[in-house]
């Protein structure tokens, strides 16, 4: 065997290591995964991508990447707000309908490296999100939109000469499934444990026939990762029955929510504001009330479902003050209603739900300025220094929270 052959063999061996490691692990039984997922109960859906800066819900991929310019982006603030509301997990739109990837993907330039007005094209929003939410003891989910016909819907219209990219970067043309699998490998091998992969448009006409192959690829890399196929109620396709409530309600579908007496592990996703992505039309008056949210959360718990509530950061990259305030009010209301109370086995605040299932441990307390937290292991988030804009943090201290105890 020549030196050249040895080098090729070594290259392929290294490339296969993540998959071989995953195969060596005992795949958790589906019921075990479902029980773990249901213990999370309440989560934050985070729609933030190029659409945020273009006043629309679906991007086409032909937007000017220079428009992505969040001056005060702060994933720590997102995580603090989720924790204050009593949420235990989050799902972040790392690739939406425009195909723009919020990490540096080696397979495309249609990614965060094109956002020259954000860290001069050298950022990694997936890393910032994962680190911030892990620091608060929250489970991490990633949203990945599969192909579709997005450029002719939601008021979108291509200009002469523009090619329909069908929701993927241009480099995916000709091999959608292969490209998707390569990007999923990046997401599932770079960022540590990913607790949930949330797929939109799983049954589309371009890759729908290959959905089981894509799902199996996720499991080969992280066997313990929950896979959700949006709006599927078939366990052959999804680990968790999925209900996109605003869409199903608008389409007047017969089953907009899990049925009364439901016994299947499920999730209901919903919006706190007007839409999935923030737009300038949104304000405090367009938010769901605290009563609306807590009522839906209780309904979901009674029907064996988690509640994934979307809160979109605005074009500064922060959750609007009114949205962060509403999340604090939700957490306080849950405390007052008795869904959160002191638990002897948990330092600080813990949830003891009245729903007859395992407790959702969380922590709710009045928010305070988040400067530098040094009590990393006595129940507080690890040390933070406010990222790049400490003076702005100080000015907004009353709107910023501090994480509570790490989840047990």
Q: What are the SSEs and their pairings?
A:
Layout: H1 3-24, H2 30-38, E1 42-46, H3 75-84, E2 89-95, H4 125-135, E3 139-145, H5 176-190, E4 196-200, H6 211-221, E5 226-229, E6 241-244, H7 245-250, E7 266-271, H8 290-302, E8 305-310, H9 321-336, E9 340-342, E10 349-351, H10 390-395
Parallel strand pairs: 1-2, 1-8, 2-3, 3-4, 4-5, 6-7, 7-8
Antiparallel strand pairs: 9-10
Overall helicity? 25-40%
Largest sheet: 8 strands, parallel
Class by SSE composition: alpha/beta
CATH class: Alpha Beta
Order of helices and strands: HHEHEHEHEHEEHEHEHEEH
Share of residues in strands: 5-15%
User: What topology, given as strand order, has the largest sheet?
Assistant: 5-4-3-2-1-8-7-6
Please name the CATH architecture: Alpha-Beta Barrel
> What's the alpha carbon Rg, rounded to whole Å?
21 Å
**Assembly category:** single chain
Number of helix segments?
Answer: 10
The N- to C-terminal Cα distance equals: 53 Å
Fourth-tier CATH superfamily name: Glycosidases
> How many β-strand runs?
10
Provide a descriptive summary of the structure in words.
The chain is α/β, with parallel strands linked by helices. The protein has helices at about 5-25, 30-40, 75-85, 125-135, 175-190, 210-220, 245-250, 290-300, 320-335, 390-395, and strands at about 40-45, 90-95, 140-145, 195-200, 225-230, 240-245, 265-270, 305-310, 340, 350. Strands 5-4-3-2-1-8-7-6 form an 8-stranded parallel β-sheet, with helices on both faces. The protein has a two-stranded antiparallel sheet with strand order 9-10. It has 10 helices and 10 strands. The chain has a single domain, classed as TIM Barrel (Alpha-Beta Barrel). Strand 2, helix 4 (about 125-135) and strand 3 (about 140-145) form a beta-alpha-beta unit. It is globular, with a radius of gyration of 21 Å. The longest helix has 22 residues, at about 5-25. About 30% of the residues lie in helices and about 10% in strands. The protein starts with a helix and ends in a 13-residue tail after the last helix.
